[in-house]
Amino acid sequence: MILTDWKEFADLDLVRLKQALRFPIVIDGRNLYQPQQMLDHGFTYISIGRPAIYPPHAGDARKLAV
User: Who's near 20: CB < 8 A, 6+ residues apart?
Assistant: First the structure.
């Protein structure tokens, strides 16, 4: 859960973050990231005022869920 707009959080290494998380879910209260960027890195991404992003699962044809 991101609740600050500090540069340290905006500049996270998303590849490393995904590897470190058992469940790669980011709830972004400051809209620091672009939804497509988070989808490209395989995160479930929930941000304020925008549709939630869910990565496709094995055998799942979804690319983007609203």
Answer: none
For 8-66, what is each residue's pLDDT tens digit?
999 999 999 999 999 999 999 999 999 999 999 999 999 999 999 999 874 554 555 54
Instruction: Tell me how many domains the chain contains.
Output: 1
In a domain, 66, yes or no: yes
Q: Which residues contact 49 (CB under 8 A, 6 or more apart)?
A: 31
**CA–CA dist 16, 36 (Å, integer):** 18
1 lies in some domain: no
Report the distance separating Cα 27 and Cα 23, nearest Å: 12
| Residue-level pLDDT at 56 | 86
CA distance 66 to 51: 5
